[in-house]
Amino acid sequence: MSENQSVRRTASSRIWQTLDRYLGRGSYYWLKDRIHPQREYTQLTYARLIDEVLTPQTRWLDAGGGHKILEVTSPEGELAMVRRVRLAVCCDRVLDAIAKHRSIRIGVGAALDHLPFRAQSLDLITLNNVAEHLEQPREVLSEFARVLAPGGRVIIHTPNVSSYAARIVQLGRRILPKPFIMKLIRFMDFREEEDVFPTYYRANTCADLTAAAAQAGLSSEKVMLVPARPLFYFVAPLCAAELAASRLLIRLGADRFAASVILGVYRKPTVRAQ
Hints:
By secondary structure, this protein is α/β, with parallel strands linked by helices. It has one domain (40-267): 3-Layer(aba) Sandwich (Rossmann fold). 44% of the residues lie in helices and 18% in strands. It contains 11 helices and 7 strands. A 7-stranded mixed beta sheet has the order 3-2-1-4-5-7-6, with helices on both faces. α2 (27-35) runs parallel beside α10 (236-251). The longest helix has 20 residues, at 3-22. The chain is globular, with a radius of gyration of 20 Å.
């Protein structure tokens, strides 16, 4: 490559980065602050739910999370949470993922419906963007109930399949070629193909998730529908329109359609004294 070609390529790259920052993917952040400032990144809301229940005696399993607890750039927040508890364990069927976990040092390779833990040996199980990938969510939640101590909790972050965003994504998966979908995922979510797994959405409405938890013997402590990043966040005009529309829908009480994430906290009942 000649020096002139290198200079042109560098200039082109800088122009693209600037456009992407102000009119592309980066536009979401400044548009959100102006159109819907109350909107919070759902991973931060999820992290706060976890942080609220951690104690120095907590025995915590992060289930199916791959190589990190939270989908945030910096590991500092989850490292601080891990240091607060008595025991932190990650579990996944993909052994390479748990081997390179950025904050949890103890990993177990296992299917979530057959956990290698004694009954009542855990206090907290977290499930971040995993429930949508479960073929048998009721069996998994029943296994969680088995290994949880009385009063133990399951905290779940998962897509709301009733939302417009989930419906558009499902339609896109049906009609678009897989290579194009993989490129979109890489561009939008910075995920490679090895981090993309089949989805089933068998417990991905508030009603279905709560019913599955109840059948497993877990009571509903808190269930929230929260808006996530706009689906078309990478194009400034579409991002602005989507932010405004979803804010209006939420004000009108149409959370089920506008909010694309379910956050649920489910608890195993404590044993009453006889």
